[in-house]
């Protein structure tokens, strides 16, 4: 058989046969006097095996290991490893399809936000808040929450979004106070008023999220860069007030001090 004939018989392309020769998966047969390769039945059997192994999902390096006489692993070991890998991929696909189903339901019901897709925790939080008030700070807050939804680890994200549910009820008043400070200096007396209103809206649990100092890099700098100086001062002062409130109730762990 010529290369085109063996390729057609096994169901591959002549280019694939040449590639297998190049990689050493398929030995090159002897050439006839006219220079053409002459393939036999054993070549076809080996080529068919290469095709079956690749169709199972083995990479060509793994196929070479299986075919080599001094292969470090038996075929059953390679296939078991492949089966485990496919099971992992299958689980990932199932999880992604489950998330996609939720997003499709939200899109069909008009509940999919412009910044989506987002986690179920943030989607539930935003659904509970309802329509955004006519406030630049509210829009910015929503953008920051969407960023946190992506960068905060999953276990912390669930806890943070749960805490934010407690904030949403009184958020409208706080947004208004923060909007009024967009052009104010940091020593404006309204900073303290807004900080106390924000601290009153924040639950004690928010004190467990330590915000690094400015200049440390990372999320804190991104967060404060979005705020006007007086607004940033409000947030920092509010976190101090929350810490003082927690300390006044017996410490962060909820136990009385000696």
Estimate the helix proportion, in percent: 55-70%
Question: What's the average pLDDT?
Answer: 78
The major beta sheet can be summarized as: none
Number of domains: 3
Keywords:
rod-shaped; DNA-binding; DNA-bd_dom_put_sf; 3 domains; 12 helices; disordered C terminus
List the helices and strands and how they pair.
Layout: H1 3-10, H2 14-23, H3 41-55, H4 60-67, H5 75-108, H6 120-129, H7 136-151, H8 154-167, H9 171-179, H10 190-201, H11 219-225, H12 229-248
Domain HTH merR-type: 1-69
Keywords: DNA-binding
InterPro entries: DNA-bd_dom_put_sf, MerR-type_HTH_dom, MerR_fam
How would you characterize this protein structure?
The chain has 258 residues and is mainly α. It has helices at 3-10, 14-23, 41-55, 60-67, 75-108, 120-129, 136-151, 154-167, 171-179, 190-201, 219-225, 229-248. It is rod-shaped. The model is unreliable at 252-258 (pLDDT under 50).
Brief write-up:
This protein is an all-alpha fold and 258 residues long.
């Amino acid at each position: 058989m010529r290369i085109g004939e063996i390729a057609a018989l096994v169901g591959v392309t002549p280019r694939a046969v040449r590639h297998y020769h190049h990689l050493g998966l398929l030995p090159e047969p002897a050439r006839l006097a006219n220079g053409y390769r002459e393939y036999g039945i054993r070549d076809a059997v080996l080529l068919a095996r290469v095709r079956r192994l690749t169709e199972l999902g083995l990479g060509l390096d793994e196929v070479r290991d299986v075919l080599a006489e001094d292969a470090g692993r038996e075929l059953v070991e390679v296939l078991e490893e492949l089966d485990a890998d496919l099971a992992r991929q299958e689980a990932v696909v199932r999880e992604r399809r489950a998330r996609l189903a939720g997003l499709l339901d939200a899109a069909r019901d008009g509940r999919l936000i412009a910044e989506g897709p987002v986690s179920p925790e943030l989607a539930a939080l935003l659904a509970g808040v309802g329509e955004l008030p006519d406030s630049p700070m509210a829009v910015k807050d929503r953008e920051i929450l969407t960023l946190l939804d992506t960068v905060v680890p999953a276990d912390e994200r669930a806890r943070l979004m749960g805490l934010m549910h407690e904030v949403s009820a009184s958020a409208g008043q706080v947004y208004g106070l923060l909007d009024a400070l967009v052009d104010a200096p940091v020593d404006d007396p309204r900073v303290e008023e807004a900080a106390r209103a924000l601290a009153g809206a924040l639950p004690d649990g928010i004190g467990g999220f330590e915000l690094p100092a400015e200049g440390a890099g990372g999320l804190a700098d991104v967060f404060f860069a979005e705020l006007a100086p007086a607004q940033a001062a409000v947030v920092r002062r509010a976190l101090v007030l929350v810490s003082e409130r927690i300390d006044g109730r017996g410490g962060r762990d909820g136990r009385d001090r000696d």
